[in-house]
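Lecture 7 notes: from sequence to structure.
We start with the chain below.
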Amino acid sequence: MHPHLEILLQLQDLKSQRRELAEGSDEGRVEVQEFHIDLQSAIAELDTKIQEMEAELPENLRRRYQQIEGRGRAVVPVINGTCYGCFTSIPTAVVHEIQRNDAIRLCEHCGRILYGVG
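Predicted structure tokens for the same chain:
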């Protein structure tokens, strides 16, 4: 898998975890009750890790990711030839390229970053 694609997927996951903790979700309450974590400290650690990982990305890709994530998930799978960001069909030749996950590819319709699932 392309190293920047790996970072983007990890970033998306970390930001999702941060949102859950910050919004007081059920998962956040379980973390506090069962594992006795300090919520603010955990959020601060996530923020630090997110900043470190974003710094590893090229500037243009980081900006693209940040623009897209304002509309929801920025990195989405292509399943059965469909972008799972906008649910538009992807041309077959492009799907085969995406499945290799060896480059950063964008959906021509919604602009989200695509990855293939086996």
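Points to note: The first helix runs from residue 3 to 22. The radius of gyration is 16 Å.
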